[in-house]
Amino acid sequence: MFEITHELDDSALTSVMYHVQLRIYERDRFPGPVARAERMHTVMMESELPLAPTVEAMVAEIEAHAGVPLEALTEERAGQYARQLGEISSARVRARPGYNPERGRRLLEEIRREYGYAA
Predict the structure, then answer these.
(1) b or e along 95-117 (b: 16 or more beta carbons within 10 Å of the residue's beta carbon)?
(2) Res 33: pLDDT
(3) Is residue 27 a contact partner of residue 70, using CB atoms and an 8 Å limit?
(4) CB within 8 A of 5, min separation 6: which ones?
(5) What is the pLDDT of residue 2?
(6) Which residues of the chain have pLDDT under 70?
């Protein structure tokens, strides 16, 4: 599922993930494809508008997989799709050269010690 994400660069992936997840969480406030599309165009930056068809395709994929419109998803089911999308992003970050979570933890601890607060 969500194979279309493989065609996106990191910046586009971040934007698309944000807007798909926003549509999942706002599904009750903006029911139906027309209201959701109008909402998406009001919150997207101009540079993101070319990604709108990709967002639409991913929402359609969720609806096809779930067998119900987006607004009919239960909170639990919607959360499952949102988590799956988040995992796609996380997997891409982990696959980058130089990804080192241990180094990040050490740096965070150093910042906490140096500045004396929870960063």
Answers:
(1) eeeeeeeeeeeeeeeeeeeeeee
(2) 79
(3) yes
(4) 13, 16, 17, 58, 88
(5) 85
(6) 117-119
